[in-house]
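Final report, Chapter 2: Outcomes

The project's central promise was a pipeline that accepts a single protein chain and returns its three-dimensional structure in a standardized token representation, suitable for archiving and comparison. That pipeline is now operational. To close this chapter, we reproduce one record exactly as it appears in the project archive, with the input sequence first and the structure output second.
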Amino acid sequence: MEEKSFFLYKGLKKPLVFKGLKGKYIYYAGAAFAGTMILGIILSKVIGFFIGIALAFGIGGGLMWNVFRLQKTRGLYNKTTNHNEIYIVPIRIRLKQKYEST
């Protein structure tokens, strides 16, 4: 039997990339997948097998879509944006200079 393998790409000063997801979004997608599996098991026991699995796949697909949407809109590094606001912070500068007499 042939072993299945996946490539994880990581370069110098580059984020980890797997199946189009980067960095922390790989973990978000893994958590969404695991949550979908648990939800599928619970819903299949409570509601019924086919309806529960269909609902779990629908919710899981929505979660995965949300992970890709978050990656596209927020990006890998959440930086605070400056909504055209100017902050003026007063700073006292003390210069200590020594003068030598010539």
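Archive annotation: The chain has a mean pLDDT of 78.
This record, like all others produced under the grant, will remain available to the consortium after the project formally closes.
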